[in-house]
Amino acid sequence: MADHTLAWDHAEFENRLRDKGTAYHIHHAFNVRLNSGECSPEQVRGWVANRFYYQWCIPIKDAAVMSNMPDRAHRRLWIQRMLDHDGHDDFQGANAGGMEAWTRLGEAVGIARDDLWSLKAVVPGVRFACDAYVNFARHAPWQEGVCSSLTEMFAPQIHKDRLVTWPVHYPWIESSGLDYFRSRIPLASRDVEHGLKVTLEHFTTRAQQQRALDILQFKLDLLWSMLDAIEKAYPA
Ligand code: AHQ
């Protein structure tokens, strides 16, 4: 039987998307310990080395979403995300991209570039979660791929937390190593502006809006399960 439950207006729909922030990995015990200074250098290195695989997968995920995008106007916006991570133009300095900035984070916490890029430290649960994200992006309609990136609604805060707490708790980490977090704050806000517009305009019936909430929950669970796996691999 058709469900004629009234769809939420855009403001209510956005509020319900944002209300899911309570499940964001900022609240995960490992992240709380990390930003409270309770992690050992080995646990910090474990987090950096495992999260590198997520960073490695993001541009591949974004290329998958883009390959499903028929509209050039959306591709012109979406391609920026890949350039942010892979770099562009002369690939030097600020043009080197997020994976280079994460490599500098790795070196600042004591992980050599070759070790980080070998992905040898990536534990099965992290690899599985990241691969699930890429596979989702490959097979889902592009609007669902865009919707899944909306966990970045909550990302500026987690980056700001690191920039405030890590220098206090981990003075042994060279400040320039935190440049990745600095760079993401404006980029996350830019990404969310496009992602939210697509999501609010595409998911129009109540059933579709519930689908969008379920997609966001899938991604929240994906981020959460990465920290579960990291926490288990690097116990307190
Ligand atoms: O550094 C992050 C990043 O580039 C992205 C892209 C976006 C996506 O497409 O799913 N999500 C995301 C996130 C990044 N950093 C995470 C963190 O905790 O540092 C947060 C994560 C997100 O909120 O989805």
Which homologous superfamily in CATH is the superfamily? Heme oxygenase-like
Question: How far is the N terminus from the C terminus?
Answer: 52 Å
Number of domains: 1
Which band does the percent of strand residues land in? under 5%
Oligomeric grouping of the chains: single chain
- N-to-C SSE series? HHHHHHHHHHH
What best-fitting shape do the alpha-carbon axes yield?
Answer: globular
What small molecules are bound in this structure?
Answer: ligand AHQ
How would you briefly describe this protein structure?
The model has no long low-confidence stretch (mean pLDDT 97).
Secondary-structure map:
Blueprint lengths: L9 H10 L9 H7 L5 H27 L4 H15 L11 H12 L3 H6 L5 H16 L2 H7 L6 H15 L9 H24 L3 H28 L3
This protein binds ligand AHQ.
What do you see in this structure?
With 236 residues, this protein is mainly alpha-helical. The protein has one domain (21-233): Heme Oxygenase, Chain A. The chain is built from 11 helices and no strands. The chain has helices spanning 10-19, 29-35, 41-67, 72-86, 98-109, 113-118, 124-139, 142-148, 155-169, 179-202, 206-233. Helix 3 runs parallel beside helix 7 (124-139). Bound molecules: ligand AHQ. Ligand AHQ binds at residues 58, 149, 151-152, 154-155, 158, 184.
Q: Which key phrases capture this entry?
A:
globular, Heme Oxygenase, Chain A, 236 residues, binds ligand AHQ, 11 helices
